[in-house]
Amino acid sequence: MMLSALRRRSFSSRAVASRPGLLHVGCNIRRDDPPSKQYVPNAVSVSLRSPIVQVFGSNTDVGKTIVSAGLCRAAVQSSATSSVGYIKPLQTGGDSMMDARFLHSHMDASRLTCETLFSWDTPVSPHLAAQLEQKSLTDDILVHRLSDAIHKLQPTASTLMVVETAGGVC
Fold first, then answer.
1. 118 beta partners
2. Which end of the chain is more exposed for a tag (fewer CB within 10 A), N or C?
3. What does pTM read for this prediction?
4. How far apart are the first and last CA of the chain?
5. CB–CB of 84/72 below 8 Å?
6. Which phi and psi angles does 5 have, rounded to 5°?
7. Other CB atoms within 10 Å distance of the CB of residue 49
8. What angle do CA 76, 80, 86 make, to 5 degrees?
9. In this predicted structure, what is the pLDDT of residue 106?
10. Span 105-144, pLDDT tens digits
């Protein structure tokens, strides 16, 4: 499709709710779109009872894990009953639980649940590692697994859910 054929659209920042108390993460729509256009196929429906924070940094070694650890630690320390979920959808560099161990070492690990969804040994960006190791991953599979992980961890993450994206994507 040619760029000139694309229609320019203005977007709003309002949430798209499919059911009361649920939010489709990662999508914005125009306020004047009819309901039939408000469905987004790869959107993830999540409960709004506990916030989900995405930590993003486009390069490696820019502090994503340190920020994630700080958010998780503050949430765990916010009350005696708080619990936190941490998801690392894509991890490269060999040790699939490296970031999770870092988080566990800096807070009450009994109230932190960590999950790494996909990992590759090669310490490069995820798309390149997948290509080099011939372990490809589609966006649909990633979104499905992330949705499953959020739904699995959210009941145990009463205070906060942190999703830390991979670096090296700039």
1. 90
2. N
3. 0.72
4. 24
5. yes
6. -80, -15
7. 10
8. 25
9. 83
10. 888 888 899 999 999 999 888 889 999 999 989 988 998 9
